[in-house]
């Protein structure tokens, strides 16, 4: 597969899924004036209108038109939608167009891309920005969302070095720092530090909301509960897709967490203050060390 350098300085950007992540990409590139035109594809008319109003996209188009016109396409939809999007755009892609994505999982996205794109998978350079928030939709978008944040790129064997470099520049152009990783390592790492915390946050919110005295509990909840459950307000569809896509790695992390929670439960049941103090001291020190990095 050859990529000419016209892909390095493209004219038209196509954003598929103009929510928090996609609209923030639109705003960032509009600010940086990287593209002459930014096209948006979505499934909610109200959200697309909001994206236009905010200046994140110039025009709403169909998937087909997006594929026909775009030099770079970025897919920012819940990960289970990836296959149908790529399958629909494949016949219409420009020869030198490059595609990247923002999906929070990578092994499933790459498998979907290989099936949907066939030989054209060389044009797909998988990525994941480690930036976001619990709000969703274009109205939550920010031009500086990626400023100083990390973006993981998981290049494929099929990708030409120039194509990977062009997508690297695409993310750097929004102020992000890029880092390369294999998809397998990516999914194992983010199961532990992103996917597990979201599942735990949803679970705690459910536990308190399900209580008979939920109103009393929620009425008195302070900063600890607020911090722990901030991410429980995240998009349910997005997190359903992530949890199922990264099932193996996530289940492993959940089992380890359940085991650790059981150990702490036993210490409390046995009133083993020394063991509790040792565990909490280690966790507290590690948290402070991490914050100071
Ligand atoms: N929110 C975060 O913190 C975060 C961070 C990094 C990566 N991601 C990933 O980015 C992607 C988008 O997340 P988001 O936070 O922007 O979600 P979002 O809900 O704000 O936006 C997703 C948008 O995609 C649209 N969409 C869904 N299916 C579609 C389809 N088939 N065709 C066209 N549009 C479609 C929705 O209408 C919505 O506007 C997800 O894959 C998510 O895993 C999210
Ligand atoms: O800021 C938040 O609320 C986030 O949850 C962002 C966050 C995370 O850190 O887990 C969520 C999902 C992503 O794929 C990447 C980033």
UniProtKB/TrEMBL annotation:
Its EC number is 1.3.1.12. InterPro entries: 6-PGluconate_DH-like_C_sf, NAD(P)-bd_dom_sf, PDH_C, PDH_N, Preph/Arog_dehydrog, Prephen_DH. The chain crosses the membrane at residues 12-29. Gene3D superfamilies: 6-phosphogluconate dehydrogenase C-terminal like domain, NAD(P)-binding Rossmann-like Domain. Keywords: Amino-acid biosynthesis, Aromatic amino acid biosynthesis, Membrane, NAD, Oxidoreductase, Transmembrane, Transmembrane helix, Tyrosine biosynthesis. One of its GO terms (molecular function) is NAD+ binding. It catalyses: prephenate + NAD(+) = 3-(4-hydroxyphenyl)pyruvate + CO2 + NADH. Pathway: Amino-acid biosynthesis; L-tyrosine biosynthesis; (4-hydroxyphenyl)pyruvate from prephenate (NAD(+) route): step 1/1. One of its GO terms (biological process) is tyrosine biosynthetic process. It is an enzyme of class 1 (oxidoreductase). It comes from the Bacteria. Residues 11-293 form the Prephenate/arogenate dehydrogenase domain. The keyword NAD applies. Belongs to the prephenate/arogenate dehydrogenase family. This is prephenate dehydrogenase. It comes from Polynucleobacter cosmopolitanus.
């Amino acid at each position: 597969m050859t990529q000419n350098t016209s892909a390095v300085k493209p004219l038209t950007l196509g954003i598929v899924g103009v929510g928090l992540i996609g609209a923030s990409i639109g705003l960032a590139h509009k600010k940086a004036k990287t593209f002459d035109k930014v096209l948006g594809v979505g499934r909610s008319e109200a959200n697309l209108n909001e994206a236009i109003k905010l200046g994140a996209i110039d025009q709403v188009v169909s998937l087909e038109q997006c594929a026909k016109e775009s030099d770079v396409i970025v897919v920012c939809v819940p990960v289970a939608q990836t296959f149908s999007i790529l399958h629909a755009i494949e016949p219409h892609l420009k020869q030198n167009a490059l595609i990247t994505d923002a999906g929070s999982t990578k092994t499933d996205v790459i498998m979907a891309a290989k099936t949907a794109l066939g030989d054209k998978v060389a044009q797909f350079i998988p990525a994941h920005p480690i930036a976001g928030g619990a709000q969703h939709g274009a109205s939550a978008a920010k031009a500086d969302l990626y400023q100083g944040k990390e973006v993981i790129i998981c290049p494929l064997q099929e990708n030409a070095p120039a194509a990977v470099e062009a997508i690297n520049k695409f993310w750097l152009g929004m102020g992000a720092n890029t880092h390369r990783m294999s998809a397998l390592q990516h999914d194992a790492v983010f199961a532990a530090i992103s996917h597990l915390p979201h599942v735990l946050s949803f679970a705690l919110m459910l536990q308190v909301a399900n209580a008979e005295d939920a109103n009393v509990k929620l009425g008195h909840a302070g900063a600890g509960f607020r911090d722990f459950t901030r991410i429980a307000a995240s998009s349910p569809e997005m997190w359903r897709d992530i949890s199922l896509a990264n099932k193996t790695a996530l289940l492993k992390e959940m089992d380890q967490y359940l085991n650790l929670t059981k150990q702490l439960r036993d210490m409390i049941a046995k009133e083993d203050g020394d063991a509790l103090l040792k565990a909490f001291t280690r966790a507290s020190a590690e948290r402070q060390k991490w914050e100071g990095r």
